[in-house]
Amino acid sequence: MHCYQLHSPCIPAAYQPALTLEFARNQELDYRDLLPGTGLTAADLAAQSLTPAGYLRLLHNLATALPDGDTAFLLGQTLLPGHQGPISHALLQARNLGQALELLLRYQAWLSPLLAPHLMRQGEQTLLYWTDSCVSARQRTFLVEMMMAAVSGMARWLSGQRLPWQYSFNRTRPAHPEQYAVHLGSQVQFNAYLDAMAIASHWLEQPWPRGSEMGVQMALAAAEREIGQQPRRSLLAAVYDYLHEHIRQSPSLEQCSAALGTSPATLKRHLAAHDTHFQAELDQVRTHVTLELIHNRGYSNEQIATHLGFHDANNFRRSFKRWTGLTPSVFRSHLFQLQASE
Question: What is the CATH number of the domain that holds 96?
Answer without folding.
Answer: 3.90.1520
